[in-house]
Structure formats: structure tokens, C-alpha cells
Design a protein that fits this description.
Blueprint: H1 6-9, H2 11-96, E1 101-106, E2 109-111, E3 117-123, E4 129-138, E5 141-147, E6 151-154, E7 157-163, E8 170-180, E9 189-196, E10 205-206, E11 225-232, E12 238-243, E13 249-255, E14 260-266, E15 270-275, E16 281-286, E17 292-296
Parallel strand pairs: 2-9, 11-17
Antiparallel strand pairs: 1-3, 3-7, 4-5, 4-8, 6-7, 8-9, 10-13, 11-14, 12-13, 12-15, 15-16
Length: about 300
């Protein structure tokens, strides 16, 4: 068979070449379109993946925030429950606890110039009395004073002490109220306080006993004034006595443990301190021109 060439075919070869070139261009264009489509798909896939990751992170953060919020609410609920529990306990305690009740007051007779100690007996189931309030006279006026705890309480029965002053002779109507740690107050206890001159005969005179003081120890003169402070650092109540001009002991004051008592007197006057329960002489002092401090240990 005879072979033909483009030289023999002429115009036919030119058309074929153009067709081939056109086909190559179309192939290249198709390849470029496919490449662009693949790149767009790749970018779309990457964007989807990034979006999925972002949504996943947001979901995780949302769950974490929700968990934190739930935990915060749980803690807040626990706090509120604890506050409610405490309030309920306080309410129950307030319902159970009761105010103190004063049963008696001793030492309501004093002597001018002395500082007598009032012994206040009371009942309080919780034994949590923290002090009291005194309302009484000061000459022609009335004054009030507060005092702290000084005494003891056991089994719902207690004693507390208040040192009162006695500047004028007479009889007054006074009130004492006790307070406990729950801010409860007792009903006011009203009593008559008698402040008498020293010369009144009902001051107790102690005769010499087995715990006898020196009978020759007595006051000899009363012209030069002085003073003495008696300090009770012992664990018991003590009583202070003056040795008069006949050598007899005359009671002046009772001093609670940890308290003191100031006394105006005269030079050469003897004073004796006895234990209230033991009646033993714990201290003897003869006053001098210089103010003294006598301490019972």
C-alpha cells in the first residue's frame, strides 16, 4: 500500500495538526481545571477539618464551662446548706438555752468608806454567764455599772461577785441583771442595800479563838491618817478585821480571790486578815505613815 505524507496531502495535514494542537490545549485546560478543582476540594476539606476541630474545641470548652458552672453551683448550694444548717442549729440552741435566774444576793449591808462585795447566786443551765449590770444610787442620783465574770458555775448553779462602793449612809433600792453568752438577760433582781456608819453596833465583833491574835495588839491613837490596800492572791475568800482600842477584832470587808480592798485608817492601827472558811490568821499588819500594800498569798 502506498504511503502518503503531508507533502502529498497538503491541506489535510494542516487540519490534522490543528486538531491535535486543539486537543492538546483542551487536555491541558482540562488538566488545569481538574487541578484547580482538586485544590479547591483540598482547601474545602481543610476548611471542613478546621471547622470540625474548631467546633470540637468549642464543644469541649462549652462542656468544661458547664462543668465549672455546675461545680460552682454545687459549691454555692453546699455553702447555702451549711449556712441554713448553722442558722437552724443557732435557732435550736436559742430555743433550748435559757436566760440566767438570780436566786439570791448576799452582802447587802455595807459600811461607809468600804467597798463591800456582793455575792450573787444564780441558776443557768448552760453556765455561760459573762457578767452583769448594776443599777443603784450615787447620792441623790442613780447610776449604773457593768461587771464581768468573777466566780464559778457548775451543774447549772453559779456564783458571781460585784464590788460595790459605799459613800453615804442610808438605804437604797437597787437592781442587778445578769447576761449570758447568748445575749440572754435575767429578770432584774431588786433588793435593798444598806450603807451604815461604822459606829453602828451591829458590826460583828470576833472574840479571840483557837486562832488567836495577839491580845496586846490594839489601836492606840487616831490622829494621823494613812491607808492600806489588802490584795487577795489566795484561792479563798478572806475577811479583813480592825483591832480596836480594846484589842477586839471588828469585821470590815470580805475580799474575793483575785480582788483587792482599799481602807482608810490611822497610823498604829492593827489589821488582821483571816481565811473565811478556815478562820486562820493569814496576815497581820500595823499601819505606818506611808501607805502600804498587804498581800495575802
Amino acid at each position: 500500500m502506498r504511503q502518503w505524507s503531508c507533502a502529498h496531502l497538503g491541506w489535510f495535514c494542516d487540519d490534522e495538526l490543528r486538531r491535535q494542537q486543539q486537543a492538546e490545549k483542551q487536555r491541558i485546560a482540562q488538566a488545569e481545571r481538574e487541578g484547580r478543582a482538586a485544590e479547591a476540594q483540598r482547601k474545602a476539606d481543610e476548611q471542613k477539618l478546621a471547622e470540625a476541630r474548631r467546633k470540637q474545641l468549642e464543644d469541649e470548652l462549652g462542656r468544661q464551662r458547664q462543668a465549672d458552672e455546675n461545680k460552682r453551683r454545687e459549691i454555692e448550694q453546699r455553702r447555702l446548706a451549711e449556712e441554713n444548717r448553722k442558722r437552724e442549729l443557732e435557732r435550736q440552741k436559742a430555743e433550748i438555752s435559757s436566760p440566767p435566774v438570780i436566786t439570791s444576793i448576799e452582802g447587802t449591808i455595807g459600811t461607809v468608806g468600804l467597798n463591800p462585795v456582793l455575792k450573787i447566786s444564780y441558776k443557768d443551765r448552760e453556765c455561760d454567764v459573762v457578767g452583769g449590770h448594776w443599777d443603784g444610787p450615787a447620792g441623790n442620783e442613780r447610776i449604773s455599772s457593768t461587771f464581768g465574770p468573777s466566780g464559778s458555775c457548775s451543774g447549772g448553779v453559779g456564783i458571781i461577785y460585784f464590788q460595790r462602793t459605799c459613800h453615804w449612809s442610808g438605804t437604797w433600792l437597787e437592781n442587778i441583771t445578769l447576761s449570758d453568752a447568748q445575749s440572754h438577760k435575767s429578770a432584774p433582781y431588786t433588793y435593798h442595800y444598806v450603807c451604815q456608819e461604822y459606829s453602828q453596833p451591829d458590826q460583828p465583833v470576833l472574840k479571840e479563838s483557837t486562832t488567836t491574835a495577839n491580845v496586846s495588839l490594839r489601836s492606840t491613837e487616831g490622829t494621823t491618817k494613812t491607808s492600806v490596800r489588802f490584795v487577795n492572791n489566795s484561792n479563798e475568800f478572806v475577811n479583813v478585821y480592825w483591832k480596836d482600842y480594846q484589842g477586839n477584832e471588828k469585821f470590815y470587808s470580805k475580799i474575793a480571790p483575785g480582788q483587792f480592798y482599799d481602807q482608810q485608817t490611822f497610823v498604829t492601827h492593827p489589821w488582821i486578815v483571816r481565811g473565811e472558811s478556815s478562820r486562820k490568821i493569814l496576815l497581820t499588819i500595823v499601819t505606818t505613815k506611808t501607805a502600804q500594800v498587804a498581800t495575802v498569798k
